[in-house]
Amino acid sequence: MVIIDLAHGVFSLRNCLFFFKLMGALLDTPRTEKFNESGVGNNLRYGLSSMQGWRVSMEDAHCAITQLPGNLKDWSFFAVFDGHAGALVSELCASELLKCIVDTEEFKRIDPDLAPSIPEIQQGIREGFLALDERLRNLPEIASGKDRSGSTAVCVLITPNHIFFANCGDSRAMLIRDGKVSFATTDHKPVHPTEKERIQKAGGSVIIQRVNGSLAVSRSIGDFSYKTDRDLPPTQQLISPEPEITVIDREKASDQMIVLACDGIWDVLSNDNLCELLLERVQRLDDLSKVCDEAIDYCLYKGSSDNMSMVLVAFDPAPKVDPSLKAEDEKLEEVLERLTNSTFPYPHTFTHFRLFYSFLRLSCARL
């Protein structure tokens, strides 16, 4: 079974990337250097990893805030943004979205001594998304048409008693509870009946599963060339900046992890696949950013050609590191280091072997 999977991974990696290399859209060799970050706060831990991969530039961005400002110190916020046609919008989303949300009237009315109104929080998140989109529209480089970038956005707002998921586009977040996927956001694709209806009412069409044959998502921040009808409100344009918001009651005894990732991850892994992988690896690695690193390497070897970013948030009930499994992994790493130092004199050969090793190890873990 593993041999078949490995063969499929190798062949899909070669075949799917060949055309894009010829077109100049991808690099000859993937950029596998990673940005890592980790932290603790509000009785949770997080780790994140991002990698450029095969793409000619890095357009992903992220945000991780364990403690919100002001009266919301026991609230946390995490987000992933997948940019396209440039990195400007995704980078501004990472730095400005939370500010836009907490600056809404709904959030200013929150009294830390009283139970917050769930509908008001949902409305505040929605208004924050719309406010950011409008603010970006007026930036000189965007208003002039010089920059035409856009970005998906998926975020989680964690309060003492609730988890708010907000999604706009095809990046995805999921909650792992009691060892299985309890919830996952829905990707906003043009072929979805509700999305397709809005696109057609706005005068557009869905061709080869894309808006007007071009954009592969039906909701995003930015992408103002798809938001030009002045007779329509923002939420009824070809591309909508409105997030889909879901609120879930926290179950503090059984909520284990939340993962947020761009479509470079989900293109090659199902929700259940990633859930199994993460539950296994957190028993061997105490650094959550390294768990994300391994998942990204695994996806790269399986054939993902996109930028990849992942944020992993762990609550107290998440599986703890098993000392025997950790020691087993560390011993295996030592053997691998000795092998690679003596066998692979060229960096690109070493990188490919490490990807193969990651793929093999994580594939075996799922058997």
From TrEMBL:
<dbReference type="GO" id="GO:0046872">
    <property type="term" value="F:metal ion binding"/>
</dbReference>
<dbReference type="InterPro" id="IPR000222">
    <property type="entry name" value="PP2C_BS"/>
</dbReference>
<keyword id="KW-0904">Protein phosphatase</keyword>
<dbReference type="Pfam" id="PF00481">
    <property type="entry name" value="PP2C"/>
</dbReference>
<dbReference type="InterPro" id="IPR015655">
    <property type="entry name" value="PP2C"/>
</dbReference>
<dbReference type="InterPro" id="IPR036457">
    <property type="entry name" value="PPM-type-like_dom_sf"/>
</dbReference>
<keyword id="KW-0460">Magnesium</keyword>
<comment type="similarity">
    <text>Belongs to the PP2C family.</text>
</comment>
<feature type="domain" description="PPM-type phosphatase">
    <location>
        <begin position="45"/>
        <end position="315"/>
    </location>
</feature>
<protein>
    <submittedName>
        <fullName>PPM-type phosphatase domain-containing protein</fullName>
    </submittedName>
</protein>
<dbReference type="GO" id="GO:0004722">
    <property type="term" value="F:protein serine/threonine phosphatase activity"/>
</dbReference>
<dbReference type="InterPro" id="IPR001932">
    <property type="entry name" value="PPM-type_phosphatase-like_dom"/>
</dbReference>
<keyword id="KW-0479">Metal-binding</keyword>
<keyword id="KW-0464">Manganese</keyword>
<keyword id="KW-0378">Hydrolase</keyword>
